[in-house]
Write a sequence for this structure.
């Protein structure tokens, strides 16, 4: 038996990542987006948008990332999301066919702000290059 014939993979390490957490995350995102548009009366959540949901492989925890319109405060929206956590979870338990309803954790998604900041830096570098004597 040569080294080429030997399988160096340990059991369990070569398994592909399950697509179930991604499907559950997508279902949670869709349901929360509908709830925010149709059923939420809290003024703090009037313009909140769910941007992405990450679910742990064991489906016990879901991280929900959200944004608010530019210029709006994030703190009231985060407080409103945390206050509505029980309502969200009970609705997800009714709609999704899961053994356990994931615990929900809410985070402000600042990706758009970072993209704008980096774009501004690139524009600034471009302006400095234009104004540089050749």
């Amino acid at each position: 038996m040569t080294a080429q014939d030997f399988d160096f993979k340990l059991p369990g390490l070569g398994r592909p990542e399950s697509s179930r957490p991604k499907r559950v995350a997508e279902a949670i995102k869709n349901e929360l987006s509908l709830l925010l548009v149709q059923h939420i009366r809290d003024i703090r959540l009037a313009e909140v948008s769910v941007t992405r949901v990450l679910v742990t492989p064991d489906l016990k925890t879901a991280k929900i990332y959200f944004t608010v319109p530019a210029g709006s405060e994030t703190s009231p929206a985060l407080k409103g999301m945390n206050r509505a956590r029980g309502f969200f979870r009970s609705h997800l338990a009714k709609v999704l066919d899961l053994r356990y309803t994931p615990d929900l954790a809410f985070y402000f998604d600042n990706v758009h702000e970072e993209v704008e900041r980096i774009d501004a830096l690139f524009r600034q570098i471009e302006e400095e290059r234009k104004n540089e004597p050749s």
The first helix runs from residue 20 to 38. The mean pLDDT is 85. The chain is about 45% helix and 15% strand.
